[in-house]
Structures are given as C-alpha cells and as structure tokens.
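tool_call: predict_structure(chain=1)
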Amino acid sequence: MKTKIISRYEYAIILIKEMVRADFKVKYQQSVLGYFWSVLRPLFLFCILYAVFTVGLKVGGDIEHWPVALMAGIVMWQFFTDVTKSGMRSIVSSGGLLRKIKFPRYTVVIASTISSFISLLINLILVAVFALFSGVPVLSTLPATIFVIIEIFVLGLGLAFFLSAVNVKFRDISHIWDILIRGMFYASAIIFPISHIADAGEKGAFAAKILLLNPVAQSIQDFRHLAINPEIDSLWTLSNGNALLYLIPVFFSLFMIVFGGWYFRKKSPYFAEDA
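tool_result:
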C-alpha cells in the first residue's frame, strides 16, 4: 500500500526519474568516454593539484594519507559546484518546456541535483579504491560521513533553489556565482591541510575556525577526519568539542534549504514568462 507522501508526490517522483535519466543521456551524448567523464574530471584536477602543491610545494607532506584526503576534498567540492551550477541553470534551460506544460517547477531543480549526486557516488567509489590501494584503514567513524554528505547536499540544493529563481530574472547571477565559487575553493582548505593555518598561533587557530564556519569547508574537513585520517583537524576538534560553534554551519545549511525553497516557491509562478 502506497504511503500518503508517495501518493501525493507520485507524479513529481516519476518526472524527476525521467529528467535525471534524460539529463545523463544529454550530458554525455556523442561522447566517446561517456559516463567516465564524471570520474575523469576530478581525477585530472587531482593530478594537477597533487603535482603542483603536494609534490612541488610539499603541501600536506606531513599528513598521513594526504593524497587520499586531497582526492576526497576535490570530489566533495566538485559535487557542491555541480549541484549549484546545474541547479542555477536548470529553470532557464527548461524555459520552453515550462511554457508548454504545467508541472511542479521544483522537479527541474531536484532532478539536476540528483544527477550531480549520482556522479558523487561514482566518484566516492573511486576515492574508496584509491584509499584501499593507499593503505587507508577502515575507520569506525566511516558511517558518520553519510550525515556530512547529506549536509553538503542540503546546502547545495538550497542554494540551487535560490540561484535558479534569481537567475530567471537576473542572468548576471551566474557570472557572480562563478567568481564567488572560485574564491570559496581557496577558502575551503581543499588544497592544503587546515592545520597549516590552525598551528600558526592564536590568530591562526581563530582564522581556521572562521574558515570552517563555511559549511562546505566544514563538510570536507569532517569527511576527511571521519573517513581517512582522524588526525586531520575538523571544526569539532579545533573548537574542543564546542557543540554550539559546530552547529553554526549545520544550521546555516538547514536555513538555506528552507529559505531557498521558500524563495523558489514565491517566484515560481513567473518562471514561464521570464525564463
């Protein structure tokens, strides 16, 4: 017997499934390597950053299993980037469909984010294989990474809702977001251990905590800490278990999904005429 939720949203669920399937087909259509590109993109970026920073500049050389941590950080960041960028473009790119057919607008954004989520799962398999060959032990804290992944997905989806609604009216937002997200990449401690900042005295420890209030940085460091090396600093360890401080980025992610969903719903009646 179907639950009330499934019965109520059955049409939306079917739409999302078909949109995700169509998105994957279009994304890799007429591509020789096809779905392998979802793995090759973060792998190529890893090779470049590893060669320049880890091998060339010796960044992270003092951290055990740092190459695996670097790969995991890139995969998580790529996921966040894909969710927000594809979600932001989703309504505008579906403008013709919105004008012809009446259906729940939110399904377009959710479908684009689920496509990115599937790519994340594929890339996490790559990270797991890399970790296995690198001798990373299976930690008891590994199951807790599920909550970290959910957190960054919730944040990305909330931003996707908000950005997609804004992008319908103001197309400049895509260029602004490109600039902001490039800055966030370097401020999220992806290419270097956060301990390089935290160990630089009181000011460094304070700066590290501020950086990790960014939910993306916090999620990436938590994932590294829980899945790869417990000696890699996280917001929890740097704040000495301060639950209030740790919950700030978590609450921000929750706020973003609520606010983004509310703003999207408010603007959705005008999408067909503006997209």
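agent: The first helix runs from residue 4 to 8. Proceeding to next step.
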